[in-house]
Amino acid sequence: DQPRPRISVVGTGYLGATHAAAMAELGFDVVGVDVDPAKVEALSAGKVPFYEPGLPELLVRGVESGRLRFTTDLAEAAAFADVHFVCVGTPQRPGSNGADLRYVEAAFEGLAQHLTHDALLVGKSTVPVGTGARMAARVREVAPAGLRVELAWNPEFLREGKAVHDTLSPDRVVVGGASPWGDDLLRQVYARPLSEGTPFIATDLPTAELVKVSANAFLATKISFINAISQVCDKAGADVTVLSDALGHDVRIGRQFLNAGLGFGGGCLPKDIRALMHRAGELGAHSLVALMQDVDEINMWQRQRVIDMAVQACGGSVLNRRIGVLGAAFKPDTDDVRDSPALNVAAGLHLRGAQVVVYDPEAGETSRRMFPTLTYGTSTEEAVTDADVVLVLTEWPVFREADPAKLLGLTRPGATVIDARNCLPADTWRQAGWTYRGLGAAR
Ligand code: UDX
């Protein structure tokens, strides 16, 4: 039996922390590296610094088994591992649609500099096409002579809220730019999912980089498509949810990502389509620039559309009106509020002079940090008390399952609910006495 490769994971955000814990779960010795000592301290103590179902259990198991540890010292990781996964962030550059690659560059350079034995450096971060080749050249310049140091790209497709499942049982493993040696190392790392039938797609660097951004661009396009259709539904009195169900039966279309509503947010989709737009522009691929611009605009317009609905429900102005906002996270099962459509709408109504009370079952703390001037409640009941209008902006199960008759007893008489995720049982709410409004939901 050949010894199992030792693994480092650089960057311990959603992606890195989950990847590190999953690799330990698969039986590898893993070190996670982060520049933030607070994160390293928390993870070392078995505490996940964000909400991700199933991850705390995995982390604790890894740490307690001794297979998983964390450090701020990149040199220590470089000396320890054979396969290094770079999982650092690629945020949107301020004042530009382009991606900020400084963390990616620092990770590859820092690792390469400190290597003491042969190593495979693997990019997982989502990057503009061409980054991998640039990093490979830089790594060759910086790495100590005489070592075999190679680079490959292995994009990550995990969804927040399902990160553990997606990491342990991915839909596919895509690897770009690996030599036979690198290919073999990555097949060892992914032996378990591969043995369970997960497809392994070996390709070149640019194709691997593009698979990831194209996947996100397609998902975003699907959402903006159905949101544009939902506007037609509103004008024509049609029901977009029934329409999505009917479309979804066509296997060429599929039902997933056809939920009309407030649109997409989070740390990935919005910034990834903008980075793709930017990179496509640099490359002179103008069709994609135009397409992504429309997808982005339709998506951002959904937020305005919901604000306008709230203004209308308040009779033309929200000034001093009480608005209960249910949901702040960009989607359920996460406390992530990065580019959250829900918080954006709440903040927009607050700016227009409404008295907004926000409740989210998990994202209260992260929301408060992002928008400290908003008022946060600790329950659905508290958020809707005395409200003229209630907005459902994130489709958490507790909102879907709430008792509309009970809630109507707490609001001002004649309250309206705006179901911006089309997630409530409309008839039940109407029967309970609410004025119900959805997006593209027939009256
Ligand atoms: C996404 C991709 O799905 C994942 O593969 C990639 O690795 C990272 O980006 P994530 O950001 O976790 O994952 O969220 P996702 O579940 O894709 O949802 C994105 C946004 O789209 C959410 O704001 C969600 O509310 C919205 N959405 C999703 C819709 O508005 N309608 C839908 O039908 C589906």
3D architecture notes:
- With 443 residues, this protein is α/β, with parallel strands linked by helices.
- The chain folds into two domains: 7-202, Rossmann fold (3-Layer(aba) Sandwich); 217-438, 3-Layer(aba) Sandwich (Rossmann fold).
- The protein is built from 19 helices and 14 strands.
- It has helices at 14-25, 37-44, 55-65, 74-80, 102-114, 131-142, 163-168, 180-189, 191-195, 205-236, 240-248, 269-283, 286-313, 341-351, 364-370, 380-384, 397-400, 404-408, 426-431, and strands spanning 7-10, 30-33, 68-71, 83-86, 119-123, 149-153, 173-176, 200-203, 322-326, 355-359, 375-376, 389-392, 416-419, 435-438.
- Strand 4, helix 5 (102-114) and strand 5 form a beta-alpha-beta unit.
- The longest helix is centred in the middle third of the chain and has 32 residues, at 205-236.
- The model has no long low-confidence stretch (mean pLDDT 97).
- Bound molecules: uridine-5'-diphosphate-xylopyranose.
- Uridine-5'-diphosphate-xylopyranose (UDX) is lined by residues 156-160, 216, 219, 223, 257-259, 261, 263-266, 268-269, 330-331.
- Residues 156-160, 216, 219, 223, 257-259, 261, 263-266, 268-269, 330-331 line the site of uridine-5'-diphosphate-xylopyranose.
